[in-house]
């Protein structure tokens, strides 16, 4: 069990790198996509929506072979569907780095040793144990001023069972709140802190290269591509709600955690196989890698991500998913796209066109 207390190792440790400065990333590649995603979807043999709210599996396509146009359309599909999943990918690590570079500047987790990727391993233990860390839902390092936007994880080896990852749509999580709670949460800020991760890392023998930080981000954010309202909740890193008193903050965060854990209908669960990939939008999705019950040495992956914009809240330009569907007179629940249409015929809702 990793100690979450002040230890001599913690007191002696001094991280080598300065804090990151806020910056404005280049325009999101999804804005360069054909809203129908014709090039990408016609190259795939199938694009199957796995659940109503999140997750599309692309079949018959290799990430290593994508044209720039198809990469942009993939970004749009990820922004719309939260996570795009693929199997049997032949992409090499170098090609994965190049693909990430198409979407922006490679981000670096404070605990990331290689500047270009994180090596993801299996997680053991009992998720219910006191102080168990690593199995909680999270968006990756949301405490950064510029948290990641697009994140790609490719597993190179996988156990025969166990180690699945669950992805949950924060667009849908916001949408499922009552209008009263939606209004109450809009305009609030969560304080996202890396304190606990920093302490656990050093006490576990790690050497984070940056000091911990705490950043206030909107609790409801506007997704820059879809312009949908997204709950920006993160049980791993949010410590409190800035505008609330202590008890109020404590109970609202407890409610939000229950809201998230209750959301099996807003979730997709991915069983990994060697060479499979999950490409998710870290701005609108939380995920959890389910720990325990398998041989952790059999799970290994490479994660690449790029810095996104500073999360923002633009009430004038954004709407909830239900408002969007009502305005468009659309049936059903899906945010958009492929819904099982073969060979690229998509009847879905495009983010920056049909929306
Ligand atoms: C992560 O938390 O980014 C890794 C997810 C996983 O191991 O499936």
UniProtKB/TrEMBL annotation:
Residues 333-355 are annotated as: Disordered. SUPFAM superfamilies: Clavaminate synthase-like. One of its GO terms (molecular function) is metal ion binding. It comes from the Eukaryota. InterPro entries: AtsK-like, TauD-like_sf, TauD/TfdA-like. Residues 48-293 form the TauD/TfdA-like domain. It holds the Pfam family TauD. GO terms for cellular component: cytoplasm. Keywords: Dioxygenase, Iron, Metal-binding, Oxidoreductase. Its cofactor is Fe(2+). Belongs to the TfdA dioxygenase family. This is Alpha-ketoglutarate-dependent sulfonate dioxygenase. It comes from Eremomyces bilateralis CBS 781.70. The lineage of its organism: Eukaryota, Fungi, Dikarya, Ascomycota, Pezizomycotina.
């Amino acid at each position: 069990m990793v100690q979450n207390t002040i230890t001599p190792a913690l007191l002696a440790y001094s991280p080598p790198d300065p804090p990151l400065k806020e910056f404005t990333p280049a325009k999101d590649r999804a804005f360069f996509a054909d809203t129908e995603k014709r090039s990408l979807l016609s190259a795939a043999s199938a694009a199957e929506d796995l659940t109503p709210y999140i997750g599309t599996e692309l079949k018959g396509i290799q990430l290593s072979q994508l044209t720039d146009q198809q990469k942009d359309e993939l970004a749009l599909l990820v922004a719309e569907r939260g996570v795009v999943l693929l199997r049997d990918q032949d992409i090499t690590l170098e090609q994965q780095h190049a693909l990430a570079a198409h979407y922006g500047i490679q981000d670096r987790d404070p605990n990331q040793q290689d500047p270009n990727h994180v090596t993801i391993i299996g997680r053991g233990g009992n998720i219910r144990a006191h102080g168990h860390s690593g199995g909680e839902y999270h968006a990756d390092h949301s405490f950064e001023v510029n948290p990641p936007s697009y994140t790609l994880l490719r597993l190179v080896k996988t156990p025969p069972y166990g180690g699945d990852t669950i992805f949950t749509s924060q667009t849908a999580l916001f949408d499922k709140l009552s209008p009263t709670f939606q209004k109450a949460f809009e305009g609030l800020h969560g304080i996202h802190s890396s304190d606990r991760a920093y302490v656990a890392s050093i006490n576990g023998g790690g050497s984070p290269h940056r000091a911990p930080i705490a950043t206030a981000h909107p609790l409801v954010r506007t997704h820059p591509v879809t312009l949908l309202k997204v709950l920006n909740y993160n049980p791993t890193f949010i410590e409190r709600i800035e505008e609330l008193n202590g008890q109020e903050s404590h109970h609202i965060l407890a409610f939000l955690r229950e809201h998230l854990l209750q959301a099996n209908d807003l979730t997709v669960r991915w069983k990994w196989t060697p060479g499979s990939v999950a490409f998710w939008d870290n701005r609108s999705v939380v995920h959890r890698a389910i720990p325990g019950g398998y041989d952790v040495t059999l799970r290994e992956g490479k994660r690449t991500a790029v810095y996104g914009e500073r999360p923002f809240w633009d009430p004038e330009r954004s709407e909830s998913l239900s408002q969007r569907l009502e305005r468009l007179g659309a049936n059903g629940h899906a945010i958009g796209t492929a819904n099982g249409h073969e060979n690229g015929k998509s009847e879905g809702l495009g983010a920056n066109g049909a929306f």
